[in-house]
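Hi! If you just cloned this repository, the fastest way to understand the data is to look at a raw example. We've pasted two of them here, unedited. The first protein comes first, obviously.
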Amino acid sequence: MVLPAQRVVQPLAALPSSHASPHAAAHAASPGGFTPGAQAWLARLGGLRNMVRQELVSRQLDEQLRARFGVAAPLRVLDVGCGQATQALRLARRGHQVTGLDPDPATLASARQALALESPEVQHRVQLLSGSGEDCGRWFGPAAFDLVLCHGVLMYLPEPGPLLAALARILAPGGLLSVLVRNGDGLAMRPGLAGDWAGAVAALCGGDNSGDGAERPDYTNRLGLPTRADRRETLTRTLAELDVPVRAWYGVRVFTDLAPDEAPLPGEPELSALLEAEERAGRSDPYRQVAALIHLLGARP
């Protein structure tokens, strides 16, 4: 299965929320967060790099859902930082009840516009809220969700711990937590392969350190935003401490991370071969260790 190319849509002004909730509070992203790059991100959704990310994450998530839940009843899903709602809508089409949460007005408007194009049955299964994942403990009780997605969010936060703790609290027993982050252990690959030797050396030395001697795998992403990478070992330890131990992990974008933002999708059979290569590399050492992104799935006992 290959995900259809995502529509590049312009955010709608004052588009009403679907299934509006009285506890959906407005939340503005911090100046150092994602909001300054939101419009540029939306314009790139139909490109090769994003398609590879979404397709691989979908395949990896489906594998773990089958292993964990089999053909169980519909799951209660929370997608934190849902963006244009690619994963949220895909899961809703499969019968799951999905809540999408995003603090950025432009991306949330785009998600609502994408939802409006779905069938009434899918629309009924999706609730889109404006807010930050750190606040979800105020809105949802303990064990409120069977599956929680946190994809591409931690890189915009100073530390991963507070958000992961909030998400672990609302994860039901037996539930899955899916976390997608920039790979701090492979941070030198992109600048090195691009011939940016100073950038590669900085990444190998621990990132753009502040001068206080602390190692921080920081970098500037393609949107021009200051962001942060995470190391698998550190996240694995954090999730274990939260009683959501990692049961599987994958690499995402081993071979296509340097593709231009505007790179179109190749035709068949090249596209299928590309995805097979990426999928195999993403589950095989040593390739997955240097992928641009890593996808960790933790399970609540």
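Ok, and the second one:
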Amino acid sequence: MFAVLRHLLLRMTRRRSATHVRLEHLLGTRIHDFSLYERALRHRSIGSGQATDLLRSNERLEFLGDAVLGLVVAQHLYETFPDKMEGFLTPLRAKLVRGKALAEVARQMGLGVIIEMSPVAARHGGREQNAMLADALEAVIGALYLDRGLPAARRFIYRAMLDGVDLEALAARRDNFKSLLQEYTQARGLPRPTYQVTQVKGPPHARDFKVVVRVGEVARGKGRGKSKKDAEQRASRSALRKLNKPKGSTNPKGQLQQLAQARGWSMPRYKLLDTQGPDHAPLFTVELRVGPDLCLTQRGKSKKSAQRAAARKALEQLSARTAGGAHR
């Protein structure tokens, strides 16, 4: 019995020692208080959800690490761009410290392998989830700050995240859709976009968020993501696509509907006739009737694509009829 316990204890010690050495290599410094890093790598899914369990998770260190990271990056940008104002610096900082960027750094470090999480979280792909990786990286930065101070944390952040980054190119990249949507509405005197979480599903370690963005009272876009921020970005991108879409519809179904209305016809009618092929590669056949006598069928890899193909074909035929009539 004691031999078995001693064997397990030795295995746990070797595992901790291996993690200890690995972290020192990744951080580029000696670790004084390894218990800080153990907590930084302990996800909340390990506990039962009680307040005492959450205190033993990495969430408090994540809070601290987020502040340390923000300070170091803000100072770096302040010193690098002495002639730039807040309107330039703030979006650039957001790009550097956003969850997706942090998760990529954590992934390159191999941090996911050493995060302590529940078996359920691991089975749901927790070691590759952007939110979990980003949180762990911020918690490790918080632990490094407490263990070795701000200079050590700054050296790590520079080495892992800032060295070699083309900040000018990053600043020019237009991929913050929330900021772009806000700029769009401000330039046109529209109300500021507001975001509402409409649905949250899944366990705490694998959330699925649905968000709607409104401009004034009108819903302009919807988005879905594994974090609230990600869902908001996707909703903003959807809204921008709709707002920038030409007023004349480029969707053949929409164009055909407009044509039917203009000619006083009833709305185009689509009917699914057949579905063939295996489940992973189905082929749909759709019938379209429009106007007094036009009836045709088209195929597509989805019901919608078959309907669009049928509408496109109908527009071509109706256009040919009109042109033929004009020539006569």
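That's it. A detail worth noticing about the second one: The longest strand covers residues 194-201.
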